[in-house]
Write a structure and sequence with these properties.
Elements: E1 19-24, E2 27-39, E3 43-55, H1 58-68, E4 74-85, E5 91-97, E6 102-106, E7 110-113, E8 117-123, E9 135-141, E10 143-149, E11 154-158, E12 164-167, E13 171-175, E14 179-185, E15 199-205, E16 208-212, H2 219-222
Antiparallel strand pairs: 1-2, 2-4, 2-7, 3-4, 5-10, 6-9, 6-13, 7-10, 8-9, 11-16, 12-15, 13-16, 14-15
Length: 224
C-alpha cells in the first residue's frame, strides 16, 4: 500500500529513552517506565503494559471546577510502554524545568508532565472570583511539562517599567514571580474581543514573561 500518509515523518520510531518527546507539532509521545501524569482525556493511543488511574484535585481543584466549570483533572499512567497525548489538534510544546524554575499555567493548557514536578492549583492573587481562568496551576521542581496552545503562542516580556495586560480567556501562563491583579477599563471595553461595556484584563507586573494564545475561544464554546 502506497500513500504520502506513510511518509517517514508520520511513522512512529522506537523510543530511545524514557520520558516525553514531541511526536510532531500536534502531539507528545511519552515513553513510560514507572509513572507519569496527564490531563484526563488527552491520551489518543498507547501500547505496552500501562495502567491508568484518575487522580483527585484536592480542595483547590474542586473549588476551581465549581466556580469556572474547568479544572485540571489528571490521570496517572503507570507501567512500561508508550502513550501519545494531544488535545483538539493544538500546538504542543515541552518545557524543561531546572532547579528554581516556577511557572503558572492555566489548567486548560496542561497536557502531561513528569512525576518529578510538583503542582498545586492556586487562585490568582488580586483576581478574586470574577471570571474563568483565574485559578491556575503552579509548577515547580525539575522535569518536563508538555503544554498545548491554540495556534502559535505569543511570548511577551514583562518588566517593572512595562506591565502587561492580557485577556483572561487568552492567557496560557506566566512566570510565577510576577505580581497579578485585575485591571478594569471602560475605554477599551468594545475594543477587546469585540465585546461591549467594561473590559477586565489580568495585569502582570514585575520581571518575567507571559504566554498568550491567539484565541479567546473557550472549550465550552468550541464544543458547540
Amino acid at each position: 500500500m502506497k500513500s504520502d500518509l506513510f511518509a517517514s515523518e508520520n511513522l512512529v520510531q522506537p523510543a530511545t529513552a524514557p520520558g516525553m518527546t514531541l511526536q510532531n507539532a500536534k502531539s507528545v509521545k511519552y515513553a513510560v517506565n514507572g509513572e507519569m501524569l496527564a490531563r484526563q482525556g488527552s491520551m489518543v493511543a498507547f501500547r505496552g503494559n500501562l495502567q491508568f488511574e484518575r487522580k483527585g484535585q484536592g480542595i483547590g481543584g474542586m473549588l476551581k471546577r465549581a466556580v469556572t466549570g474547568e479544572g485540571l483533572a489528571l490521570m496517572s499512567v503507570r507501567g512500561q510502554g508508550e502513550a501519545w497525548f494531544a488535545h483538539q489538534a493544538g500546538n504542543c510544546f515541552i518545557i524543561d524545568f531546572e532547579p528554581g524554575d516556577a511557572l503558572t499555567i492555566n489548567g486548560r493548557n496542561v497536557l502531561c508532565f513528569d512525576p518529578t514536578l510538583s503542582y498545586e492549583i492556586r487562585m490568582v492573587k488580586g483576581a478574586g472570583m470574577t471570571g474563568g481562568g483565574l485559578f491556575n496551576s503552579l509548577f515547580t521542581g525539575t522535569g518536563k511539562l508538555a503544554v498545548v496552545c491554540d495556534g502559535n503562542p505569543i511570548i511577551i516580556p514583562v518588566t517593572a517599567q512595562a506591565p502587561v495586560y492580557v485577556d483572561t480567556d487568552a492567557v496560557v501562563g506566566w512566570s510565577a514571580a510576577l505580581e497579578t491583579g485585575l485591571h478594569r477599563s471602560q475605554s477599551v471595553g468594545s475594543m477587546i474581543r469585540g465585546g461591549s461595556g467594561e473590559a477586565v484584563q489580568l495585569k502582570l507586573s514585575g520581571e518575567g514573561f507571559v504566554i498568550v494564545r491567539p484565541s479567546e475561544l473557550t472549550e465550552t464554546a468550541a464544543a458547540h
